[in-house]
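Sample entry (483 residues):
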Amino acid sequence: MTAFVGLDLGTSGLRALMIGRDGHVIASAEASYDVQRPHAGWSEQDPAAWIIATRTVFAKLAAKADLTDITGIAVAGHMHGATLLDSNGEVLRPCILWNDTRSHAQAGRLDKVDGFRERTGNIVFPGFTAPKLLWVAEQEPEIFAQVAKVLLPKDYLTWWLTGTYSADMSDSAGTSWLDVGQRDWSEDLLAHTNLGREHMPSLYEGTAPVGKVTSERARELGLSGDVCVAAGAGDNAAAACGIGALREGDGFVSLGTSGVLLAAKDGFAPDAASAVHTFCHAVPDRWYQMGVILAATDSLNWLARTLGTSPSDLSREMGAEISGPGTVCFGPYLSGERTPHNDSGVRGAFVGLDIATDRSGLTQAVFEGVAFAMKQSHIALKGTGTRIDRLFAIGGGAQSRYWVELLATVLDLPIDLPRQGEFGAAMGAARLAICAATGAAPDDVMVPPEIARTIEPRTDLQPAYEDAFATFEALYPALKALP
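Predicted structure, serialized as tokens:
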């Protein structure tokens, strides 16, 4: 049997998925690790934890399947992280993660430099990689002086497997160093952070092979001596591969820790000022755009912790069908916001609390606040000329029928729920591994999953939600006006 493994390097853990050539799941495994927050606004991780997790998941897979069947591996991962290596390949400091905001001042300075928005197609966000390196240069010059290579998190894991310094287009598009339209490093943009092309890994399309698992790693993990490793993808591009969103009009909404509204694109058509992300796709000659809110299920998790209950209990209390907006408005800015505000400093609020407001009213407000924030992303996407015909819903929040119907109504789009199975970033990575190892065409491998149910917009309730959305639109300016 021929098998392929997709690794999804998440912020809190690593997921491994082993599939056959036909896409059926053979085995899966997970391992967790921690995030360090040494100061307010900082978020770091020790890359050694990713290696330990890799050893763990392969040991777990070995208890369920024959690892010598594996002929291809690809890694997907959380984007934007700065993993700094010296000339010997040694890690110089903990990786600065995507949700670290320490470099907001450096990001603001770079964003004002001519060329950054034009070539990258994006605002220079504080979470992106380039401002992190500028912060290191200014605050840790002795570390910066030793930097020989800058790798994104998943690319460090690929290097550990293969010994090759590689990066794919989709992940690299979130660094603020890539000319996203030309799909190449920009030497001018690199120079603004006192770096050059020599500090960057070689670029590949996500479906391309970058090397073989080294004999040392193969022995260590229990693999055969001939395992192809693909360039992989950033997590959202990999999820798009897992759900089959490759073509104009395809898209998905992800209700995870953050919220993502992603649309595949056949061409490069950015609008950086909208705070919409425009990135290369993981497959050749395709791009994608997405709006991102930073606290989707994180908002529900926060409310559950505060009320001393579980998110699933709060969700269950809402039932399965919407009945119109509530009277409380919630701004889901617990970690700041990206699309459309690009504001790392704004914070959330409840407005309209009444003596009769109970926990179900607060829960409804959280669901609606997240849905309205996603609508703002949809408006921003449409403003760039992006077309979305319908969406798949993925992520933990998509298990709430109430939340999905609310989103369908607010976005005015039918939302498809896939049949139960694997279709996230790990599946997308495994599909990239198939393409790299076999030469198969992405369109033949990355097909959409079977639809279990389609949730249509509730047209009878849309006028009421439009009125509630107008109230939500006024919330952000009011919060910004606070001292």
